[in-house]
Amino acid sequence: MKQIYKILATFTMVILFSTLSIAQTTDPLPSWNEGKTKASIINFVKDVTTKESAHFVAEDDRIATFDNDGTLWSEHPMYFQLFFLIDRIKALTPKFPEWKEKQPFKGVLEGDIEAVKKSGKKGLMKLLAVTHTGMSEDQFTKTVKEWMATAKHPRFDRHYDELVFQPMIELLSYLRANGFTTFIVSGGGIDFMRPWASRVYGIPPYQIIGTSVKVKYENGINMRLPKLQHYDDKAGKPVGIHYHIGKHPIAAFGNSDGDFQMLEYTDANPKHKTFQLYVHHTDAKREYAYDRKTLFGKLDKGLDYAREHNWTIVDMKNDWKVIYPYELKQ
Questions:
Q1: Per-residue pLDDT at 155
Q2: pTM of the model
């Protein structure tokens, strides 16, 4: 009998050590190629989560902020929310036939982006007013969900929520597994992201900060008004972080000059070691290649500053094994 116990004990220890070995060697970022970029992420996480480290950060302060457009999913040939806006204009036009001869609606219907641009901020607000306001929050959420379930990207012929970046999904999971709270801080509409971001990114609605319109409460309903409440881009991002989170992040992730102030604000954290990362779009074959000269996601000042101040820069072409989750199934 003792011999049986010894055999069972030995077998149990073998299983235990094998399990521990597997856990220790499991790659937390399997879609990232080995190299400086991946190592910088893992080294930072280990440094701020190891109690013996001089840079240890308590979980309450492990705040990580992520831009959305161009950082967590693609943003070309234009921001996906603009595709939503255009589709809404087309869907509503039968009710407003005069739009066919009236700018900026005419430009949208004819695909004349220059005409839309010429209409300026005033024209954009007109488009936003008819597509994003004048309805309850529940009605808008329903509209976004229906669009997300049916609309497809013109190049990839995939639903827009399929065009999220697999390496960044892994990064979000890796950070949360190490006690980080992850927030989206985007120039995109907060109510455009909330209906699907929890399902796609694992980030709940109350951890999303974005551009917002004013709302008015009436008889149990919040009605969306054609007035801007907060523009969450550039300097608006640190302001949004202050109002919604109330403390400096210790890690920030972006891809454009519109994210620069968020990364700068994180870098200025007075208490903790920080980490700043730019996603540099360098893969024209699998996604898109652009930086300084682009209408959407311009990365100019931020690229130079990141190189001068040793912020981490992802070279999408060389640092990522795959771009999108559906590639893993092919």
A1: 98
A2: 0.91
